[in-house]
Amino acid sequence: MNRILGVDLGSVRIGLALSDELGWMAHPWQTLSRSPQSATEIAHLVLEKKVATIVVGLPRNMNGTYGPASEQCSSFALELQKKTEAKVLLWDERLTTAAAARSLHEAGRSSKQQRSIIDQVAAQQILQDWMDSQKNNL
Q1: Per-domain boundaries in the chain
Q2: Which of 12, 90, 114, 119 is the most buried (most CB within 10 A)?
């Protein structure tokens, strides 16, 4: 089975998470610096890791509305779709960064220690949430 990639798009960094080959578990993978070449860089990683589906976190306000960050994520997802044959989906990412920070804190990591991996863990949460929702649809 092909893998699934989770993407947490930030203004400075992009967190990536990768599924296992069975599509059951999401794992933090890497953090990229955001640049104009980010979509191309991710497209190369998609080919390398044989990713069939990309799940991009879509930030929403707590009342369900969309803001400027949502527009950026939607545009990035469209750009990514043009550069890869993988299916690109948007997934509600409300509170994923907060959940990632909480789980890292519970694991004993200070705020300073969290900085290097929090984006990956947020991407992991986005990806795991999406994969879990797909299991419920089977």
Answers
A1: 3-136
A2: 119
